[in-house]
Amino acid sequence: MNTIAFTTAGQELVAALDPRFGRAANFLIYDTDQKTTRIIENQQGRSAAQGAGIQAAETIVRAGVDTLVTGHCGPKAFKVLDAAGVKVFNCNAATVDEALQELLAGKLTAAENSDVEGHW
Amino acid sequence: MAASSRNRSYRIAVASGKGGTGKTTVALNLAAMFGEPVQLADCDVEEPNVNLFLRCDQLEATEVTMLVPEVDQQRCNGCGACGELCQFRGIVAIGTRALVFPELCHGCGGCALVCPTGAITERAHPIGTISVGQSGAIRLIEGRLEVGVSLVPPVIRAVRDHLLDEIPAILDAPPGTSCPVVATLRESDYLLLVTDPTPFGLHDLKLAVALARELNLACGVVVNRAGEDLVGLYGYCQSENLPVLLSLPDDRQIAEITSRGDLVARVLPEYGLMFAELAEKLKRELGTTGGTP
Fold it and tell me: Is A66's Cβ below 8 Å from some Cβ in B?
């Protein structure tokens, strides 16, 4: 676990964790080695008519992310993330920072499957 | 337009813009009173209901398929060309493999063409069913979308492909003015627009008329549930040179008979006459402007 992506509408660790994956505004990427953050916009995923989750998954895979922390993840996005070896953690923490603490404290379990139905 | 060059019998599409105006009621009753053999195509493939009224029990079914990619992972080198080409996320290259999402594929075949290693072949994926039956003088062609499939136009095109050239056809369109409706209207010779005299009905009628103009399609209006407040609707029709071919009153009996699965034109003679007259008007119209069959 080196590069973690969190879904959020904000820009910083104190921002709210967005429970949605495919339609989240931004991915906050946290590097556990450097302890640095950066933002990747989910421009294409947000505006996709269909396949937002797939697009968002591609975006974070390309960014070299190995761990995703989000509220929910649908079957198509999960399939892409799984194929790329990205671990998915479902989390209902209020903020990105809280989610990060829970993850680092080992309170979250990697999902073995998508946790919500696909939608159109 | 197709109308002048066609060497087949005419096709009348019934559409509305707004849902629930009575498209299927008009299409069915018109077909029942057509006075000659006619085809009735149920193009509302997401919720086909014409056969609830016709009750054809011996239907000949044909599967509608679309070609979707299949990836030989041994040959895929993960170059990503397929995923870059696909605008619908139907195929995505991740690492050294390509993942296919058939439910998002539009069947263009582009991924197979751009794949440099020949890893992509195409296989038929079922997306719907066409059922053909006969009820008296009416030949029914029903399209039905497979559950979980969102690609409607290919199934509607398959319905149209099952129409016979030598018999006139009435096509019952889905509501709205988007791709499924356009797919229904293509190659039609006349558009019958069913509306109700509500602000919503008029608003969506205007959208449907704009669509008809775009497709260069002659059209006429059927007003359903005509009550007292008709000034705005008739004023609009007049200003747009849209003939009002039939005005059905807001009569509770129509709702009762229809909800039993019967056709009002067959149960109540006064309505039978109205729909027979509508059929005559359309035949005259298509005889003069629609060219010779």
Answer: no
